Amino acid sequence: MSRRLLLSTALAMAAGAACLLLLVLTPQQGDVSAVLLLAVLTSLLGLMLRYLVTAPGEIRFLWWVLLSTILLRFAFTILQHYIDPDLGLKLEQDGRAVTAAGRELALGWERGLTRFAWPADLKHLHDWLTLHRSAWLFYCLGYSPLLPAATNIVASASCALAGYVVVRRWLTIDAARIAALLIAFWPSLMVWSSHNLKDPVNMAALSWSVCGLLLLRERFSVPAIVLVASSWAIGFLIRPYMGVLTIAGEIAAIGVIAIRSKSFLGSASMATITVVTAAFAVWAGIHEAQQMYGEQASLEGAETKRRTYYEGAVADRAQGVGHSEYVVNLKADTPLESLLQLPLRIPLFLFSPIPVRFGSLRLMATYPEMLFLYWLIPGFVAGLAYIWRQGRAEALFVLSSMAPILIVFSVGTSISGEAMRYRNILLPQLLVFAAVGWALKRARRREAQRERALSGHQQVGPAQAA
Q1: Residue 270 Cα to chain centre, angstroms
Q2: 233 and 259 share one domain
Q3: Which of 38, 108, 306, 461 could covalently link to 113 via disulfide, CB atoms 3.0 to 4.6 Å apart?
Q4: Distance (Å, rounded) from C-alpha 281 to C-alpha 276?
Q5: C-beta neighbour count of 290 within 10 angstroms
């Protein structure tokens, strides 16, 4: 058994033992149901693994990676809800509010005080689904904050499998394993997946839509079509404006790839389709968001929100709390200025918090992760360049699915915590390129060592003959 497999086995056993111990020490109604739900969802993920991966050794490796990360995330969920509630309150106030509202609705159903009602219109469907997911779980399985967290944990962990499948199409098993490990054990992905938020489901929908499109491009099949269609539907239902952005971006990639021309006219057509569709995706996503959130979702509203968050973070810092605002405060008086600042806003969104100052313990706890992310940047560039040279279509599917979302979030984000939360939705797509670059570097290093060993052997041979 390999050292990696032994390590993942040890992690799984330790996390599983911690989960059982914590549940015994702090029992609550519905906790057993949460464990059973986690087991069922993990088993379904195992079936997906058996369908998508055929090599027995790789199935074994991925199974233990997935099991380890799921149990570790579940143990952290127990920690923040039962052992250190203040920790969970600081990290996920939005998730706690959804959990409390879902519990109240479930109690109303149980006591006959509230009747089940469908949403008044499609505009409120996404909030209705978010609330009723928690309420249904509590009503059917008993109350436990671990129940909605269990669904998010498995959805987020499944991105490691999707990343493995994508990278395995591009390169070696070594690169695919690196991608799976990076996505499975990336700290902020593990932390945020344990909260009752929409983000883990959006992240999974994005990852699996990209994976399904690549599988569909390789071979036309009904399961691949179902995978893409269900990913698009889930992404749209959970957060409609993000679903529109994702679908439009990926359709743009399909249109560009369909041209397949090396002529100047073909290249110009590809560029035109890309620009027009990307612009339409951003417009459609903002329009859809405005239907839900009103003028808050306009560029003016995004700038107002950004300024409010930034000023609030500065006020917190003045009281000795935080340092969560961006290092650079990009003021914009018009929507056009916001768009012109994208070359700075996008790096701030992707790479904040920048570890250049002291702040709260929560902020500084993110610095090791950020330093590792910076270390991966050359690998990301090398991996993207390699995939682009091998076949632009493969890279286009990933990039086009991210680009509209990246632009929209970059315009309206101004504090590090918000950036980390929304960046995590895109992070698995970024890590697949970093994994490719990392694997290429490892392969070049091994090749250099082999050449040095071979040249040393050739030099020793003539010397012994003499």
Answers
A1: 28
A2: no
A3: 108
A4: 9
A5: 15
